[in-house]
């Protein structure tokens, strides 16, 4: 390689670095914090950290309590002068759709509408399953009452036998009932 070729290579390397810019002048390398090639890839060994970014890795939905919603609706209704509602919404970082939704919820029933609602698919049961559960509960209650009645009868028989007036045993046919 000749000396002129080496100088050209040194010159080309210097051209790849970000040139100095005047204040107020925008260019792609300044915005991306370094020189880049035509494909947008960075040149050189730059170690940039993405940990300082202001955007969180996963967006999280804001949740408003019923008391907060109620107080915002009351403040919006109390605002008399023009622009008071807009000022309230800007101060609290809310959208007008929040306010209209919360007002509608208040009209429908304040406590029920402003309570947190379970999200997702609603559970639907087969009517036969519901009836079966009711019958099982009723059957369990009747079985418990029968056990108590049989216990009381046994105590009465023993008491009658102790007093000298025994109650005769009678067999009940369970199949005929």
Main beta-sheet annotation: none
Instruction: Compute the number of strand runs.
Output: 0
Distance between the termini: 115 Å
| DSSP helix fraction | 40-55%
Task: Tell me the fraction of residues in β-strands, as a range.
Answer: under 5%
Helical/strand content category:
mainly alpha
Count up the helices: 6
Order of helices and strands: HHHHHH
* Whole-number mean pLDDT: 75
User: What are the segments in which pLDDT stays under 50 over at least 5 consecutive residues?
Assistant: 29-44
- Estimated radius of gyration: 41 Å
Cα shape: elongated
In short:
With 177 residues, the chain is mainly α. The protein is 54% helix and 0% strand.
Question: Could you characterize what this model shows?
Answer:
Among the domains are: 66-114, no CATH class; 126-169, no CATH class. With 177 residues, the protein is mostly helical. It is elongated. The protein has six helices and no strands. It starts with a helix and ends in a 15-residue tail after the last helix. Helix content is 54%, strand content 0%. Helix 3 crosses helix 5 (96-114).
